[in-house]
User: What shape does this take?
Amino acid sequence: LCLLGFGNVNRTLVRLLQEKTSELQEREIGWRITGIASRSLGWIAHAEGLDHSALLEGKVSVGSTSAPPQNVREWLRAAQADVLFEATSLSVRDGQPAIDHIRAALESGAHAITANKGPIVHAYAELSALADSKGARFLFESTVMDGAPIFSMFRDSLPAVHLRGFRGILNSTTNVILSGMEDGLSFDESLKKAQEVGVAETDPTHDIEGWDAAVKVAALVTVLMEEKIALDAIQREGIRELSGEAVRAARSSGNPYKLVCRAQRDENGIHASVRPEQVPLSDPLAWITGTSNIVCFETDMFPGLAITEINPGLDATAYGMLADFIRTVSN
Amino acid sequence: LCLLGFGNVNRTLVRLLQEKTSELQEREIGWRITGIASRSLGWIAHAEGLDHSALLEGKVSVGSTSAPPQNVREWLRAAQADVLFEATSLSVRDGQPAIDHIRAALESGAHAITANKGPIVHAYAELSALADSKGARFLFESTVMDGAPIFSMFRDSLPAVHLRGFRGILNSTTNVILSGMEDGLSFDESLKKAQEVGVAETDPTHDIEGWDAAVKVAALVTVLMEEKIALDAIQREGIRELSGEAVRAARSSGNPYKLVCRAQRDENGIHASVRPEQVPLSDPLAWITGTSNIVCFETDMFPGLAITEINPGLDATAYGMLADFIRTVSN
Assistant: This one.
């Protein structure tokens, strides 16, 4: 296994691999980590296996590699990678450098598993075709709803179903901020509080202006509705213009504001949007607070099939990658 | 394909098979119906294939079978069954005759797909082991939540996840009756209305006293928590004792009554119940009205993962059997 990026997601993944080792053995799945790379660590490869407990303690012993790898291809080769776990930071605009990492892994015959939405939005068709041609798999369950089984449910559990559209709440940061505003805070106060508890990033633009939600909409449309959609084709409006008063008045009136993601297919194609909408209390979206997420699918067989992730834990995103790994090597 | 029972579910299944024929062909799945049986039709087998369009119009032409089959085994043999779709009426107490039908199919090497909860509750271990020993599959997605992908999600999309417990609303009839009572009807009036629209049966005891919900709880516990549980071990209380006034007062106070299904694992084993409970409006269960269903799972990786089926259509149960069929022959 090769880990690219060694932040929260891949660290948690290593811990889950350790915790679930006996269950993996029952499935006849063995593993060792032979490569790890990040901006601060550089490209570290050791085909006999790195000490994963030491890795989690921040101790990386490289062994006696004579010529350390200089780029992703050399690294994958030196590590004899079977599976790449790609968890570098997202570039919304072009999906790089994650696309190059995944392409390199697939070309080498390794499976590629990513928590990074960029490659789905910008290179899904190319990377899927490349994976097929190499007999490898390209999986990405953790890109939407923290590893809750959205993509795998449609692929494995809903055969021959047609998705007509969906509605949902897919960005936690804005939902936490809106919840804080309902509890009496101003937008700025609620944002600051969300930053203090680690939900909002230092530069929260990506979430607040609806980019993160739009990228998730694009990923769902691309994969589940099988239509490529440009980010610019998604109507996008963030929550910055909402005042605390407006948010509280909306909740009191029984029609709270939510940052609602939508996509719908009609005879002219797919229409998609991300914007604050007031939803009635009878709508399940109205009750999704804090870091919870929901998506309601409209399909030809089920007029409304909703998946809700309530108070996701820290493990959920890494679990999605672990589940992709199990799927990949079980088939 | 052999259809046992030819009521709504298997009739709709035949229509779906027709509608989805081209998609099945894309998956290299061909089909023909070689056997059909019900109390009124008897055992009809025709290995070259029956005319399914005629079947839907109620015209069953048997061909020139010299000696018609006299029982399920003769019927499966004469029909050269590859897959049995079992959709006879449920016997809660012993799961018969469905268990015998499924056993006969599996012993003959055919796959068995059922919409009938009895065999899960009374013979899951035996039938699963039999299927394994024959290289056949025993699938039952349609037994809980009308074919929404519950069992397949855990089996295929949530590998290595441990289910600690669940809560849900799994019986539509009682939920429709409670919704009617909230709208001003008495229990008897609401029951009568539910019978008029075809949601409640002429003898509604099975639903109203919580048996249907308890059987579904038992099925979920047996399969997903991997513990056999007797129906009598599930605390069970129906909705017959609730007055319209009590139901309306509970809704007005913001804590509506729902017939809540629960199961939870602790150090002493699994505790399960079906009973009317008042749930707060912040609970997603509070907003499940009419024929909608919900189940919230607590797992080691997801503290709360909920599946909601909103206003299920008539096709959902038959779709669950179709999806089981596709899974069965795709693997």
In short: Residues 118-134 of chain B form the longest helix (17 residues). The CA atoms of residues 153 and 159 of chain B lie 9 Å apart. The first strand of chain B starts at residue 2 and ends at 4. DSSP finds 13 helices and twelve strands in chain B.
